[in-house]
Amino acid sequence: MRIDQAIASELRDSRGTPTIEVTLRSGDLSVRASVPSGKSTGAKEAHEKRDQDGKGVNDAIRGLRESIFPRLEGERFAFPNDIDHLLLSVDGTPDKSHLGANAMLAVSVAGTKLAAALSGLPLWKFIGTHSGATPALPRLYMNVLNGGAHAQFHSPFQEYIIVAGGSETLAHSYEAAVRAFWKLGDVVKREVGDVPLGDEGGYAPMCDTLDLPFKMIREVIDGQGDLALAIDAAASEIFLDGFYTFGKESYDRNELLALYQGLVQKFNLVSIEDPFAEDDVQGFQEITRLLGKDILIVGDDLTATNPNIVSAMTDTRAANAMIVKPNQIGTLLEVYRAAGIAKNAGWELIASHRSGETEDSFIADLAVGLGCYGVKAGAPTQKERVAKYDRLIEIEKEFLY
Ligand code: PGA
Ligand code: ZN
C-alpha cells in the first residue's frame, strides 16, 4: 500500500475534550481514525500525550507531523504492521511518552483501515486474517448505570452492565438491551427520581445501598432469556492504604471477596471486571480461584492490553478474561500480541470503548475480528456509543450472509 498523504487534526470527544484524528490517503481512497480517552485510567497504561494544560493535543499532532508523516508520505508498506514498527522505533520509549500512545494509535488504526480498504475485505475480516484470530460475533456489554469515577461516585461500582447475546442475533439482543435500558429509566425514576446521565450515557442515580442498582436492573431483565448482569468495579479507583471504600463502608481484601461472592449468588452476575486494584494480584488470584469456574473475572487496569503484563498475569492465573483497549498500549501490533497471549491461556476477550469516545466505530470491527466474547460500548444515549452498535449490526449482516 502506498500512502500519498497523511493529515492529523483535532476533534472533540464525548466530554468535549480535544482528541486526535488521522486521515490517510492512497490514490482516491481515504480513511480516518480517531482515538478515545479514559478517565479511570490504570497506572500501567501507555502515556497519553497532552499539552501543558493537560487537555490539548497540539504537541501530539506536531509530533506526528514532524517525525512520522514524512516517513509515511510517498512510501509503500507491505503490511500495516510495518507502520506500527515504524511508530515504535521512532517513539523509542517503553511507555510511548515520546509520540504519545494517543497519537500512535490514530496512525496505527488508520493504517489498518487503509490496508483493509485496499484489500477489499471488510475491516473485521482483515483484522482476523492479519492477527491470526478467528472472527466471531460478541455479546454486548451495555453499561446502563454509571457510578464510580464516571458519575461522582453516586453508586459504589463504576459500571452496572446488561450483557446481551449468546443465543440470539446481535440485532435482536441489541433491541432487547435497549428496551431494558428504557424500562430501567422508569424504574430509576420511581426509586430515585430524575437523575443525570453519566460519562458513558447510562443513568447515574444516587444509590445509598449496595443492593439498589442490582435490584433495579434485575427487575428489568428478569424473564428476558438473552439478558444477564455484570459489573466493572474499577477497584483501583476506590483503593487506599489496603482498603476498598464505597461511600461510608470500607473493606479489606477478604471482606471484599466475601461481598462479591454474595453479590454473585444473590444477583446472578456473569462477570466482574477489575474486582481488585491493579496491584492487588493476590486479590485477583483468590477471586479467580473462588469464582472463576462460574463467571468471568476480567482484568482491565490489571492487564492494560500490554503483552508483557498479560503474559505475567496469565502465568499467575490472575483472571480468566481481559479487556482489550487499543489506547492502553498504542499500536494494533501490540493489541494483537496481547490478545493472542490471553487467548492461548484460555482467557476470554472483551473489547472496550473508553469513557471519552468519538464516533469512530473501530472497536466493533476489532471485537469481531479478534473473536471477542464481548464488546463494551456504553448506553444508547450518545451517538459515540450508538455508532459502535450500528456498525456491529452491519457487521452481523456481512458475517452471516
Ligand atoms: P475509562 O473507564 O474509559 O474512564 O478508563 C472504562 C473502564 O474502566 O473500563
Ligand atoms: Zn474497566
Automatic annotation (TrEMBL):
This is Enolase. Substrate binds at H150, E159, E273, D300, S352, H353, R354, S355, K376. Residues 42-56 have a biased composition (Basic and acidic residues). One of its GO terms (biological process) is glycolytic process. Residues 134-401 form the Enolase C-terminal TIM barrel domain. Residues 31-57 are annotated as: Disordered. Catalyzes the reversible conversion of 2-phosphoglycerate (2-PG) into phosphoenolpyruvate (PEP). It is essential for the degradation of carbohydrates via glycolysis. Residues 3-127 form the Enolase N-terminal domain. InterPro entries: Enolase, Enolase-like_C_sf, Enolase-like_N, Enolase_C, Enolase_N. (2R)-2-phosphoglycerate binds at Q158, K325, R354, S355, K376. Its EC number is 4.2.1.11. Transmembrane segments: none annotated. It comes from Candidatus Yonathbacteria bacterium RIFOXYD1_FULL_52_36. It is an enzyme of class 4 (lyase). Keywords: Cytoplasm, Glycolysis, Lyase, Magnesium, Metal-binding, Secreted. The active site is at E200 (proton donor), K325 (proton acceptor). It catalyses: (2R)-2-phosphoglycerate = phosphoenolpyruvate + H2O. The gene is eno.
